[in-house]
Amino acid sequence: MNLSEENRRRLREGLDWSIAIKENEIVAIGEKTEEDYKFTFNMNQFRKVPLTLEQMKEQDVRKIQDEIDEIRKLRETLNSNQNHILIVSSDIKLALTTTN
Question: What does the record list as coiled-coil region(s) (predicted)?
Fold first, then answer.
């Protein structure tokens, strides 16, 4: 699909909003307590070296930061003056198979 400059601008704005939402999620993680991680905390007790609350928060922040990085990469692709984009429905799943 060829994208007009207006459509590219709208997509960039949407990606910027997505980044802002993810950054707010990171702020919310900082405010979480042990009660918020209760299930994870209980499952964590079966590990040889249990994770602390701070380590669990760091894992969550790392996951969201990875998502932000992917959004930024997509935004850079959009900014690279390549106006061809392939939109694939989210219900389509790709599977890799290996043969021995």
Answer: 54-84
Residues sharing a CB contact under 8 Å with residue 65, sequence separation 6 or more, in sequence order = 26
**For residue 6, what are its two tokens?**
């207006």
What tens digit of pLDDT does each residue of 19-75 get? 999 999 999 998 888 888 888 777 777 777 778 888 889 999 999 999 999 999 988
Q: What domain count does the chain have?
A: 1
- Confidence (pTM): 0.69
Query: Containing domain of residue 51, as a range?
Result: 5-98
The kind and range of the H/E element at 44 are helix 38-44
Residue 46 CA to residue 87 CA, distance in Å, equals 43
Residue with tokens 């980044």: 19
Report the distance separating Cα 42 and Cα 50, nearest Å: 10
